[in-house]
Amino acid sequence: MALNYIWIAFFLIGFVVALIRLIFFGDTEIFSQVMQGAFSDAKNGFEISLGLTGVLSLWLGFMKIGEKGGVIDLLAKLIAPFFRKIFPEIPQDHPVYGTIMLNIAANMLGLDNAATPMGLKAMNEMQEFNKQKDTASNAQIMFLVLNTSGLTLIPTTIMVYRAQAGAADPTDVFLPILFATFFSTIIGFLTVAIIQKINIFCKTILLYLGSLTAIVLGLLFYLKSLPGEELSIISNVIGNVILFSIIISFIVAGLIKKINVFDSFIEGAKDGFGVAIKIIPNLIAILVAIGIFRTVGGLDLITDGLAWCFEKVGMNTDFVPSLPTAFMKPLSGSGARGMMIDAMNTYGADSFVGKLSCIFQGSTDTTFYVLAVYFGSVGIRKTRHAVTCGLIADFAGIIAAIVIAYILL
Question: Which among 87, 106, 150, 244 could bridge 114 via Cys, Cβ 3.0 to 4.6 Å?
Fold first, then answer.
């Protein structure tokens, strides 16, 4: 329901602002730009869905091998004690625990192409025991917010863009991104836990969260001790070695179980086409609405208004030019990426604005995109508190990014 109101709001605000620009400012091209943008965004949404088909087929194929080979069950048992506390609706030792774990691990390593298929598979599996098929369950909301908060250990893609933009040290945003995204994830998790009345002080949750924090800090200190050139190379190698090792473990487990590995891959890959088709309408709907809001200058109005407010109260406004990236990130990953690159090109890759834009890009995930894709793949229309919790995590990530940038940059 919340997504329905937000979607309508984008269109109505877009129309009103475009009308004001036409009547009061004589902008005779605005409605033409809006419609051209709408058609372009619709085409983009379709192309993204088609692009996902191959990736979905690839990873769902390997996931099927892992499932039949028993790897998913093993992962599920390892993480089950913690997941049973935060996903009480999911039956004990259900294979979806392993899929969720793989999805979160892929997100942490910055491997978006691997994370999305695993996330979609997990969402479909959770839908099996969702009693109200058109309404998001507590488990699905928790899983979605953990995804949208975007915990990232190794922001490989952002470091590559910084290198292309001529940054003296492309890896200098690594530490700020890690802190910002970790803070965003913790706030997102706690928000959902409070709403769903999950006891966050039980020993199991404290043990797992404490262990995760220790791992994050340990990896952080190790990578931070490396020279800049080695950090970029090693972080990229770590992510891809782990990913390929997972694939090989699935195949080896299948051989040990004496299953037909190739047929299992084909069986799982076929599901990728069905999931991609379900995504298309939802993705087009949200991308077109976001595009209209962006075209009429909605984000610019918000940014200019905030700058005026901050100046009036005497705050430092050095961070304001980078805010479009922060505001766009929950709406569109490609749009935020474009604004990040534009900020580096305009102000310089090593400028405060350029670096902060990169931190914004890495501090959270695209909330509305993830919501449209994940919930759309299973036909969920009533999102309950998913949007609210996701946006709270996004806001926490933005605040953390700004504070950390002033401290470390």
Answer: 106
Average pLDDT, the chain: 84
Q: Alpha carbon of 363 to those of 68, 164, 177, 181, 233: distances in Å?
A: 36, 20, 6, 4, 21
Per residue in 329-353, pLDDT (tens digit) is 887 776 787 778 888 888 999 999 9
3-state SS assignment for residue 135 = strand
Q: What is the number of other CB atoms lying within 10 angstroms of the CB of residue 2?
A: 15
Query: Which tens digit of pLDDT belongs to each residue from 261-285?
Result: 999 999 888 877 777 787 788 778 8
Residue 239: left if φ>0, alpha if ψ -120 to 50, beta else—which one?
A: alpha
Instruction: List the structure tokens of 185.
Output: 């994830």
Six-digit token pair at 397? Answer: 């990530």
Distances in whole angstroms, Cα of residue 26 to Cα of each of 67, 304, 309: 61, 21, 28
Closest CA to 283 of 48, 3, 13: 48
112 vs 400: CA distance, rounded Å: 23
Residue 158, φ and ψ in degrees, nearest 5: -65, -40
SS3 content of the chain, % helix, strand, coil (to 5): 80, 0, 20
Residue type, 60: L
Query: 89 with 138: CB under 8 angstroms?
Result: yes
